[in-house]
Amino acid sequence: MKTLTVRLPEALVAEIEGESRRRKLSKSDVVRERLSIKPHTRHRSSPTLDAIADLIGSVDGLPKDLSARKRKYLKSTRYGRDRSR
Question: What is the pTM of this model?
């Protein structure tokens, strides 16, 4: 196996080190796995989604399809209309 040296952003290095510790693999193994995944099968969650993952599904009483039908929901609740000032 040949050696290749690359420079990576700090955030990516931290992500790889965290995954390495969590999975008890070497950093090289983690990087090799990531490089071997085909581009269309890679699933990277956004940092924003990771930040709010614990909140998803935590509010009761909202429609299950709210993200797809937000305009209809807001219109039905009269959001933005007839506000007293």
Answer: 0.46
